[in-house]
């Protein structure tokens, strides 16, 4: 492998509940060793799993709150949905033999307008009756502008390899987004930092989240508790004040939200300390970027 043929990108998995997204992820990921799977929430995506290979890195994620009923969707602001579609390299739209487009017409329209290549995956074909797959395929291809249709059975691992191939064909040449070694060595830290980052995105307005970076300085697991020390880096001291908030209230709120999320995620009691530090203009500083895990 040479550096300049390595492929990497984001695959956004979209589909109604119970069409088999998790089962499919387990199949895609379970066959490979160098993989971390997780339910961690990130700012724009919820990372479901990452497949690492010498030649590529595929980051699978779904879009939080995407396929809720319409009123929820509007409440959750369509911009958010739009954004997470736009920064995907490939969209995997998963459905099965039984689902319809009811309640997700808006989302489908967004997908069709996004300009991102869509792979239409029709799952559970092990249950197909005569002509059913043909009918279902026709139904969905009239609704989703897909580059290709991939009928699969996730439970029987039928045709799932083709999904990987179709993704790789469309993945850009790019260095890995997440440090491969670090992911296999210390996935916990990675997910802990993503959880803190998500809470920052949820609690502060525009500029602040993009100016912050989170580093997990300590991750110490004991029998009944995990002790985590998170450093939130901002670019300027004025931002530090905003993050901390009046009387420390804002920082405390993020800390509590992150802790509760981590307890769910790690299944253990968490002791979380958060500190805010200024790393002046870290976004412009190569060494600092590297330190935060952006290696390119
Ligand atoms: P998700 O909500 O989209 O993540 O769906 P899940 O992966 O949790 O699957 C929902 C249900 O569909 C589970 O009972 C799975 O066992 C079942 N399921 C998933 N894939 C298949 C498949 O290929 N064939 C059949 N018959 N059932 C499947
Ligand atoms: K489910
Ligand atoms: Mg699921």
From TrEMBL:
Residues 196-280 form the KH type-2 domain. Residues 7-173 form the Era-type G domain. Gene3D superfamilies: 3.30.300.20, P-loop containing nucleotide triphosphate hydrolases. SUPFAM superfamilies: P-loop containing nucleoside triphosphate hydrolases (SSF52540), Prokaryotic type KH domain (KH-domain type II) (SSF54814). GTP binds at residues 15-22, 62-66, 123-126. Residues 15-22 are annotated as: G1. One of its GO terms (cellular component) is plasma membrane. It is a peripheral membrane protein. It is found in: Cytoplasm; Cell membrane. Residues 62-65 are annotated as: G3. GO terms for molecular function: GTP binding; GTPase activity; ribosomal small subunit binding; small ribosomal subunit rRNA binding. Residues 41-45 are annotated as: G2. Monomer. This is GTPase Era. It comes from Cecembia lonarensis (strain CCUG 58316 / KCTC 22772 / LW9). The gene is era.
